[in-house]
Structure formats: structure tokens, C-alpha cells
């Protein structure tokens, strides 16, 4: 009989959808896994631009001992960094999790909870300075593991799928992870090679800044 794996994704207003949904789409297919979106309250939370709602089906109090936590990022993490209920819950559940993880600026929330003190960690490249102020040492590595501390952080948005595949291997085995990758047909072949700041240029950066201002 497959041992149950209780995975929770805490959500909040102005999160980035793919940060949560990418890992969900991968991990919910693991044998024995359940994935629950949770929050300070049950009900709908809206993503950064307000176009999409994601429903919290349980509260923090309903999930005192999850096996895995995946904290997504988004503009809303800046407020979440000061959400005492969320931070206290993270500190408490981390005592017994198999893995406490984050995607993108979700690592800022882990840092605010004191879980990244003295550790290398990653986040979206635009938030390295904020991450550093939480006591972590930022790195551009796409997925950063500290298995002894049971902490894994992933960089910007799409890297959450990479992290979820790594979690699949850690929770089950490599073949399970490969099966999950094939199931979701995760075979990236982007039409442009500008997925990191090192590959960017001034023209692309100027447009990114313009679009970011429009979004806020």
C-alpha cells in the first residue's frame, strides 16, 4: 500500500499562478499524494493581476503536520512576509515536514520565518536584495537544496516544475519523477533563449520594466 503524502500549498492575494499550479500539476499525480491549497481563511484568493482566482480549501490550523509545504511567490509575498499567522505556521510545521519548499519569491516568506538563516537560497532574480535581508545568501542556481535542513528553494516561476520533479524523486524515486515529467510532457523547447538575466539585453530589459509597471 502506498504511504499517503500530504502536500500543502499556502496561498494569498496577489500570488503568481504558475508558482502554485506548476508544482501542483506535477505532485498531484504522485501515488498516494494529496495536494491542498490552504490559507488564513478558506475561499478565493486572486492572483497578481486579479484575472484568476484560486480557492483555499483549508486553513493553516487544519494542516498542522503536512509532509511537504510549497510556498509560491508573487507580488503578494511582500505582505505575506509580515503575516504573523502564516510565519508562525511555517515555523511550527517545519519541525515535522519532510520538505519545506518555495518557488520564486516564496523564498522571501521562508526567509521572513527565519528558515533560511545562514543558508544559500534562490528566488526571482529581481528579489535577491530582499532575500539577502532575510538572512539568506542569494544564488542564481535554479533549484537550491539543503537536504539536511529539509529546505528546497526554486528560482523564478517556471523553475517550480523543476523543483516538483526533484521532490518527486526524493519522495518516491527517480523513475517516479521521470514518469511525472513524461505525464505532463515537460520537454522545454522555448522559441527564444532569454530565460535568465544573463541572457537578456537592454532592449528586453526596458520592455520588461515597462510591462512590470503596467502590471502593478
Could you explain the architecture of this structure?
The protein is 35% helix and 20% strand. With 216 residues, it is α/β, with parallel strands linked by helices. It has a single domain (5-189), classed as Class I glutamine amidotransferase (GATase) domain (Rossmann fold). Helix 1 runs parallel beside helix 6 (159-171) and helix 6 (159-171) runs antiparallel to helix 7. The mean pLDDT is 95.
Task: Give the number of domains.
Answer: 1
Share of helix, binned: 25-40%
Helices and strands: which structural class?
A: alpha/beta
CATH architecture: 3-Layer(aba) Sandwich
According to CATH, what is the topology? Answer: Rossmann fold
| Count of beta strands | 11
Query: What's the name of the CATH homologous superfamily?
Result: Class I glutamine amidotransferase (GATase) domain
Please write the string of helix (H) and strand (E) elements. EHEEEEEHHEHEHEEEHHH
Percent strand: 15-25%
Biggest sheet, strands in spatial order? 5-2-1-6-7-11-10
For the sheet with most strands, the description reads: 7 strands, mixed
For the record, the CATH class is Alpha Beta
Shape: globular
Number of helices: 8
The pLDDT mean sits at: 95
How many angstroms does the end-to-end distance come to? 48 Å
Q: Detail the poorly predicted runs.
A: none
Characterize this entry briefly.
This protein is of the alpha/beta class and about 220 residues long.
Secondary-structure blueprint of this entry?
Elements: E1 5-10, H1 17-27, E2 33-39, E3 43-46, E4 53-56, E5 58-59, E6 68-71, H2 77-80, H3 84-94, E7 99-103, H4 106-112, E8 120-121, H5 128-133, E9 137-138, E10 143-146, E11 151-154, H6 159-171, H7 174-183, H8 202-215
Parallel strand pairs: 1-2, 1-6, 2-5, 6-7, 7-11, 8-9
Antiparallel strand pairs: 3-4, 10-11
